[in-house]
Prior knowledge:
alpha+beta; 3 domains; six-stranded antiparallel beta barrel; elongated; single chain
Amino acid sequence: MSESTKELSQLAIDPSRKVRRKSRTKLFIILAVIALVVAVAFAFGGKLNFGQASNSKSATAAATPATPPAPPQSGDVVLTVSGYVIPRERVEISPKFMGTVHMINVRKGDMVKKGDVLVELESDEYRARRLQSQGNLAAAEANLKNAELNLKRQMELASSNIESKRAMDEAQAAYDAAKATVTVAKGQLALAQLYLDWCTIRAPIDGTVLERMVDPNELVVPQSFGGSGPSTSFFSMADLNDLQVEIDINEADLSKVHLKQKCRVSPEAYPDKKYDAYVAEIAPQASRQKGTLQLKVQILNPDKFLTPELTAKVEFLAD
């Protein structure tokens, strides 16, 4: 054997060693597969156990009935809603005929009593009309008196058969006409006096002047004709001792309120102020667009801290 052949035979791998290496590789692969199977089984087993635990908890919860909430006690707040303070009755004072403002006796914010003179309109024309009506009435009454005397005279003559029945009828007709003329004259005088009285604008209620819309020498009319024409109102006024809170309540909360329900009102400007109140009015119709129903809460014993159009919080109390 040559020397090169000996060297090649030394480099050749023993077949027994090849088999040993193959068996080790197979063993490593088998172990890796087993480890992978165990890991997957553990992962799915954990999820399954968690699901089983959740199902058992759900079953336990379903088996145990939920405890109903305790009913609210008397005086507890069952609902809180915000609204705006408004006067229960707001009055717009307007003229009854077209005229010119002569004098204004009050200012914005003044407190007035029912019957106080607020505005005086120019009344010269209506004073002249009253004077004319008084003259017409005096003439009509004089004519009536003359017709009455003539009628009596004709009745006496008719009883003595000196005068005919026709003359007496004419005298009766003249008397009736004179009497009707007196009635017309009295009506004209009353109308002239009425217009003269309307020239003096008086307060219809006790209250506070909220807004003034006219100035002296300004023309006023009883109704608007559109555009920027004459004013149709002198003042707006209200009794600030009679206030309410106007609120819009959601449909979902309607079951929590009812008429005469006690409430507590607190203005946003003065959160430390609390006022007793009650539900005074519930609108008979809801707003489809807003999904709300309007309520008015009457405030008991309001004071100077409550001003119309202020935002206020209303707490509805359990009975």
